Amino acid sequence: MTITRINPTPRWSDATVFQNVIHFVEVPNDVSTDMADQVRQVLVQAEATLQLAGSDKSRLLMATIYVTDVGDVPALNAAWEAWLPAGAAPSRACIKVELLNPAMKVEIAFVAARA
């Protein structure tokens, strides 16, 4: 059984695919912005990664969302709900954490099926 690693580096791969299931993590590139913009950045990147791996956001299976401030969850939810196709919400966990970069407000780990 082959494991495909997309754009591997010594520390991570942009995505890892095994048995047509894609695993990947996205973080915002510009952490000087508010939660709404950081989530937007992550979701734009997620769409690009999904496309690169042969999938799309309608095929998401699971998302684990890490936030640093529960007060930002309404902004997260608004962006998330606007982004997802109707009826395609994956299973989801949302966890309050301390991220390595104190300016980062969100990090999302995704699991999706290949198309």
Question: What does this entry look like structurally?
Answer:
By secondary structure, the protein is an alpha+beta fold. It has a single domain (23-113), classed as 2-Layer Sandwich (60s Ribosomal Protein L30, Chain: A). The protein has two helices and six strands, in the order βββαβαββ. It has helices spanning 35-52, 73-83, and strands spanning 3-6, 15-18, 21-26, 60-67, 91-96, 106-113. The protein has a six-stranded mixed β-sheet, covered by helices on one side. Helix 1 (35-52) packs parallel to helix 2 (73-83). The longest helix is centred in the middle third of the chain and has 18 residues, at 35-52. The protein is globular.
Task: Characterize this entry briefly.
By secondary structure, the chain is α+β, with helices and mostly antiparallel strands.
